Amino acid sequence: MAHARTDYGKVIAPRPLSGVELASHRLDIFKYLMICMILFTIVSVFHVWSRCKLIDLNLQISESSRLLKEAEQEQKRLKLEAASMKTPARVEVIAKGELGMALPTEQQVVLVK
């Protein structure tokens, strides 16, 4: 264990950077920060664009849903109107009144065997 001790008597102090080395170091940091800022700006613009697109699509979906509900209501109304037009009593009234039709008499009926 006594031999495990290491002697650190001579420690080298960091040498001061010269003006050229400091300027190049600052330029490297500036380039790195500019790249980070550009990437951040691009990502931010894309995020805002995607959110605006999402809102626009949601508005289109709600408008389409509203139009679909209106069309379904119109379809129900038209089906009800068609069903009321098909009633035998209404058909008989129109046939007798507007078209001048009448029920056939016994002589007009021919039985086919």
Q: Quote the beta fraction.
A: under 5%
Structural class: mainly alpha
Query: What's the SSE pattern?
Result: HH
Nearest-integer average pLDDT:
87
Helix content: 55-70%
Number of helices: 2
Seen as an oligomer or otherwise, the chain set is single chain
Q: What gyration radius follows from the Cα positions, in whole Å?
A: 46 Å
Distance between the termini: 128 Å
Unreliable residue runs? none
Description:
There is one protein chain. With 113 residues, the chain is an all-alpha fold. The protein has a domain at 24-98. Helix content is 68%, strand content 0%. The chain is built from two helices and no strands. The longest helix is centred in the middle third of the chain and has 67 residues, at 19-85.
